[in-house]
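Researcher: We're teaching a course module on how sequence relates to structure. For the next exercise, students receive a sequence and then see the predicted structure as tokens, so they can try to spot secondary structure elements on their own. Here is the exercise chain.
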Amino acid sequence: MSLHALNTIAIRTRQLAKKTLLLSLIAGISLPAIAQTVRDDAAPPETTLDVPEGLTIFGKQDPNVRRATAIVNSEIITGTDIDQRVALILAANDAPVSEEERARLRLQVLRNLIDETLQIQEAAANDITVEEAQVERTYAQVASQNFRRDTTALDKYLDSIGSSSRSLKRQIRGELAWQRLLGRNVTPFINVSEEEVKEVIERLKASKGTEEFRIGEIYLSANSQNRTEVAQNATRIVEQLQQGGSFVAYARQFSEASTAAVGGDLGWLQLGQLPPALAVVARDMQVGQLAGPIEIPGGFSLMYLIDKRQILTANPRDALLGLKQLSIAFAPGTTEGEATRRASEFASATRAIKGCGSADEIAAKLGATVTNNDQVPVRDLPAPLQDTLIALSIGEATQPFGSVKDGVRVLVLCGRDDPQTEGGPSAEQLMANMEEEKVNRRAQIYLRDLRRDAVIEYN
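Model: And here is the predicted structure for the students to work with:
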């Protein structure tokens, strides 16, 4: 669970608005939200409608053809609007995207723009306005935190990728307007009792030492008619992610769960809180691993294991390490065979390291470069190295790692500051988190009602 101590409804509203906005705009920063995975005992979606088995579709309209623009309650969404949002997503994807993938991405972006338009319209109908100065301040914050640029440089970058500052600022305005609307019409009417909080605290204490998993999920709904098509779509998403696509970006655009706004982050969960089909897979996953598509009642899920820990127990990934790195580089033109031979010699020599005190001497003999790193958080290191270093004793070295291009290196563990035992969230922090979950649930219902009442024309 996230740890946000909020003391009043007004403070909670401001914090929720700021946090949700940044979560949805800044890729890679995500906090827990509500798990929307369909339970294994839930009724499949198709049982809620009286649809005959042997049906006939009258007319020649192809349901797979969708037009690119729309008018939402008289407000136009143009093809340019869609193109500029798609460009933002493609810029965050390291791998090339096929034309088929791009077409599906455009459809999802159109759905997102329709929702955004409905949210802005509903805010305006409730006399809620977002000041231009607030939009500019948030734009500057996004430029600094996510793009590491000032606003002028970000303007130029967005133009260079086929997007625009106008598109990003409209997204910011929509997020701010929606959160202010929730702050007025939803948040003040949400209440969590002390009894509910005490019940959660008791469950935490009873579960001390039990493993928790922080999972990212992309959920795609399916029924008996479109199951094959959705499964193929899920497989294509997995392939894109394996080629370097951003899980957060894909979750925001494709996931049909409410957690899409926070990059699919389900937060910290115990296996018992997941449907059995997902729990079986999650139990054996390693941090950083992607799994799926996994068929569950109502659709398919893709899972990404962000982290795992033991409840109310110190997390070894919160330890701070003192490391000494020995590295050798390969000259341009070095062949794979020669690099392998030198790496093997390097491995043999570094196995003789007896603590950090002898590392400098061995590095000198090998002609290796030595770099000292103090106070390195374990969780900031690549996932494979995390598990290796957690298992090392002081003075031991890792196996060599690297490539022909980047050279080969080893890490020697010189010191470790282990984390303190986790005391768990306070009652105030738990209450804030539970209130936030209820706000998120109510927000999804609110948006569903707006969609149902909207007049939407596709051009």
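Model: If you want an answer key for the exercise: The chain has 14 helices and eleven strands. The longest helix spans residues 99-125.
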